[in-house]
From TrEMBL:
Sequence intervals crossing the membrane: none
Pfam family, one: Methyltransf_25
UniProt cross-references to CDD domains, sorted A to Z: AdoMet_MTases
Keywords, comma-separated and alphabetical: Methyltransferase, Transferase
Protein's organism: uncultured Thermomicrobiales bacterium
Annotated GO MF terms: methyltransferase activity
InterPro entries, alphabetized: Methyltransf_25, SAM-dependent_MTases_sf
Domain Methyltransferase stretches: 40-132
GO BP term (any one): methylation
Protein name per its UniProtKB record: SAM-dependent methyltransferase
Presence of the UniProt keyword Transferase in the record: yes
Length: 246
């Protein structure tokens, strides 16, 4: 168990090195939404970077991050003036407590089964105040982004201690339906073994996404195809959605 936690902490420490918050286009989109809401729940908050930015920018209200990864939350909890909850939406029981719920970093795509999506949306609707909004993104399956990931996500970085870490990213073939499975292998000269992270992401089509939201009582208020808020088209890389609780 100690070794497993060490691995979680090591990978969590690398997350913001590989994906620096200051260079994340999604944060530029979500931060104004967070700042305009009195109470915010970040589902799949990871290292808590978005909520850290909001508090640094002067958000005076309630900020809460939810994540199932203990290693990520260990990083997030370095900021004690934000509420951090270890778990996921299946264990959440908030009732009309938040004006805004966000899911960033394509966390929505980690909901692979229909039942998972429906249960998550039901929990989000329950957590929202009347008229509250849910903002999230999922990649447009028509663009087939996974075909570029081996090149896009294979990289080397230097961590805070000056250590070089390499990530080799591989998509598992064959692709089954709308679920893409991947393996990230992290190596470094000073490590005695690689760290391996596996993931499964579902690519939900726009019409299916609309159906899931409607079934949960969440009405689409706006949709965009990229972070500069370009209208959604078949060639858009993202399906960025803001939905309101009816």
């Amino acid at each position: 168990m100690i070794e497993r936690q060490f691995s979680q902490d090591r990978l969590a420490a690398l997350y913001d090195v590989f994906y620096p918050p200051a260079r994340r286009d999604d944060f530029a989109f979500y931060l104004p939404l967070v700042m305009s809401a009195r109470s915010v729940l970040d589902v799949g908050c990871g290292t808590g970077a978005l909520l850290h930015l909001a508090r640094d920018a002067g958000h005076p209200g309630r900020l809460c991050g939810l994540d199932p990864a203990a290693g990520m939350l260990n990083r997030a909890r370095q900021r004690p003036d934000i509420e951090w909850v270890h778990g996921d939406l299946s264990s959440a029981d908030w009732d009309r407590e938040f004006d805004l719920v966000v899911m960033t970093g394509h966390a929505f795509q980690e909901l692979v089964e229909d039942a998972e999506i429906r249960a998550a949306l039901a929990a989000i609707r329950s957590a929202l105040n009347d008229g509250g909004r849910f903002a999230f993104e999922t990649r447009n399956p028509l663009v087939r982004a996974w075909e570029q990931w081996a090149t896009q996500y294979t990289a080397e970085v230097t961590d805070a201690a000056g250590t070089i870490v390499r990530c080799d990213y591989r998509v598992e073939e064959p692709i089954e339906g709308d679920v893409v499975r991947s393996v990230s292998t992290f190596t470094s000269p000073g490590w005695d073994h690689p760290e391996v992270s596996r993931g499964s992401l579902r690519f939900v089509a726009a019409d299916a996404l609309s159906s899931f939201l409607a079934g949960a009582g969440l009405a689409i208020e706006a949709q965009f195809g990229d972070w500069p808020r370009t209208p959604l088209t078949d060639t858009s890389p993202e399906i960025i959605t803001i939905a309101r609780k009816g």
